[in-house]
Write a structure and sequence with these properties.
Largest sheet of chain B: 5 strands, mixed
Radius of gyration of chain A: 24 Å
Distance between the termini of chain B: 35 Å
CATH architecture of the largest domain in chain B: Sandwich
Helix content of chain B: under 10%
Strand order of the largest sheet of chain A: 5-7-9-12-13
Order of helices and strands of chain B: EEEEEEEEEEEEEEEEEEEEEEE
Shape of chain B: elongated
Largest sheet of chain A: 5 strands, mixed
Oligomer: heterodimer
Number of strands of chain A: 23
CATH topology of the largest domain in chain B: Jelly Rolls
Helix content of chain A: under 10%
Radius of gyration of chain B: 24 Å
């Protein structure tokens, strides 16, 4: 089957001026799929419903067409082949910050198999995401002390994995000259999971995760209860805490302790979708 | 209700053949088939959704030849029964399921489904939508591998379904439990312990130090760690793993008492 075909039982004249094709069945796909190996700007008239990206040659930027000219249009963009490069999705320059209900201006598809399906929505004013598989993960290890200003917020040394942009972080930008500890800021509202493990030696720490806390020089066990996501305690041993749940755009998560010196520490943050 | 495709007019285009102007669907254009026995999808059956009733046993659904179905979208769902749906590519398209090049995908639970779209660009039947269950749950300490002396073995199997990852429980040989990722995606692991003495335990990723206690392995291979000293504890981790990754319940080699491990495929 090389071409798409619509078969119908009959064609009727509607009450108005339109025609009705009764019991249509589709062979193939109604949408037009195209493979891209370099950046591409989707046009109003190219009829593409799926852009399959091969990133073997490097990152590829796919730019959506002007919203106002594509009312109700549905477009899928997928990372289907390549190695370690990513697909970068941007709106038309006139439609800045129109990707998803969270008003993003850029979405990355860093892993093969990642995809996102947009539909233009005049009601919300966004390119709504109606289906997605988007990977975004940060994995750090090795205890590196605490922020000099945010004295109860931990820092790390090594980055083992860092891809995607569903959240941002300040590890890769130096923790604001070490004034801060690790801050994970949510860019896209959704479900996330954060795990934190540590070996304290003999420090007896309270350690866990705080959400949007302003008490960054206060021991975790003493901060406002509503800012506490999870907490653990260990006495001269290892321990771990984890939390999964829905977070909204701009939420800030931190590895928060009572500032005990640790021997080792590991943290993973992942966007679940 | 019959499905209908409304259009203002049908015009003849030199470039595009017939053109339906302002088409709008009412109802559903794809054909849905119910299958109670194995079925090989045809190039010409027009099915876009195969609903499987596994009451009588496992059902194998075989996708059609890729090259005859360019761009075709097919959803396969387990809707009834206690057995599993097994999805296979056409014999000429071995290892063409998903970007991970799988040769078989199981839908073990009612409500599981996978939607494939043929992609000539990637060379695979891409999975464009899915709900696939895959879980392993083991309990009861059974010592360690004779070669991999810090990797724990277990006695009882409580849950074992799906094939998004494989494992060697039941055939440990000289090894402890190895969980090998078959499909890249998001997974969660939890490992709960009660050690009568003190020990450290957790999960390592692709570690080659299988005779070294977890507290001393290369730091970048540790996913999660916890400790216990005559108390119970739990180590858990969730995140994205790529095909071929190996996750192991790794300890310092202490003699255990009560232990439970669960591995779960969260999804793509």
């Amino acid at each position: 089957m090389s071409n798409s075909i619509i078969q119908v039982d009959q064609v009727q004249k509607g009450n108005g001026t339109n025609l009705i094709l009764v019991n249509p069945t589709i062979q193939g796909s109604l949408g037009s799929s195209i493979g891209k190996t370099v950046s591409y700007v989707i046009t109003d008239t190219d009829n593409y419903s799926r852009i399959a990206c091969d990133t073997t040659g490097g990152d590829i930027t796919i730019t959506l067409p002007l919203k106002g000219n594509n009312i109700g249009r549905r477009i899928e963009i997928a990372n289907v082949k390549g190695g370690t490069n990513k697909v970068i999705i941007s709106p038309n320059a006139t439609d800045a910050n129109k990707l998803s209900n969270d008003g993003l201006n850029i979405i990355w598809l860093p892993k093969i198999g990642d995809f996102v399906v947009f539909q233009e929505d005049s009601t919300s004013g966004f390119w709504e995401i109606i289906h997605e598989k988007i990977s975004s993960q940060l994995r750090l290890d090795t205890y590196a002390g605490y922020g000099s200003t945010d004295t109860k917020i931990m820092r790390f040394t090594n980055s083992r994995e860092n891809y995607g942009n569903m959240f941002s972080e300040n590890h890769s930008t130096g923790y604001s000259a070490n004034a801060k500890g690790l801050e994970i800021t949510i860019n896209r509202s959704g479900r996330y999971c954060i795990t934190f493990s540590y070996y304290d030696g003999a420090g007896n720490p309270y350690a866990g995760l705080s959400l949007n806390s302003t008490q960054l020089t206060t021991n975790l066990q003493s901060i406002n209860a509503q800012d506490l996501l999870t907490i653990g305690y260990s006495g001269g041993t290892a321990n771990g805490v984890s939390w999964s749940g829905k977070l909204v755009k701009s939420d800030v998560l931190r590895i928060h302790t009572n500032a005990v010196t640790l021997v080792s520490a590991w943290v993973t943050a992942v966007y679940l979708g | 209700m019959a499905s209908s495709l409304y259009t203002d007019t049908i015009t003849k285009s030199t470039a595009a053949g017939l053109v339906l102007v302002n088409p709008a669907f009412q109802g559903y254009c794809g054909l849905t088939a119910l299958k109670t026995a194995s079925y090989a999808i045809l190039d010409t059956d027009n099915y876009s959704r195969i609903e499987c009733d596994t009451t009588s046993g496992d059902i194998t659904i075989t996708l059609p030849l890729k090259s005859n179905n360019v761009g075709r979208i097919i959803q396969i769902a387990n809707i009834k029964g206690t057995n599993k749906v097994i999805i296979s590519p056409n014999a000429s398209n071995a290892n063409a399921l998903s970007n991970d090049g799988l040769n078989v995908i199981w839908l073990p639970k009612i409500g599981d489904y996978a939607t494939f779209q043929e992609s000539a660009n990637s060379g695979f039947w891409e999975i464009i939508n899915e709900r696939i269950s895959s879980q392993l749950r083991l309990d009861t300490y059974a010592g360690y591998g004779s070669t991999d002396t810090k990797i724990m073995q277990f006695t009882n199997i409580d849950d074992n379904y799906g094939n998004m990852f494989t494992h060697n429980h039941g055939s440990y040989g000289v090894h402890g439990l190895d969980i090998t990722i078959a499909r890249s995606g998001k997974y969660s692991f939890s490992f709960s312990h009660y050690f009568p003495g003190s020990d450290y335990f957790g999960f390592t990723l692709n570690s080659a130090q299988l005779t070294t206690g977890i507290l001393s392995v290369t730091i970048g291979t540790i996913l999660a760690i916890a400790g216990s000293d005559n108390i119970a504890g739990c180590a858990s981790w969730s995140g994205y793993l790529v095909k071929g990754s190996i996750v192991r319940p790794h300890t310092n080699g202490g003699t255990g008492a009560t232990h439970i491990v669960t591995a779960n495929y969260i999804g793509s």
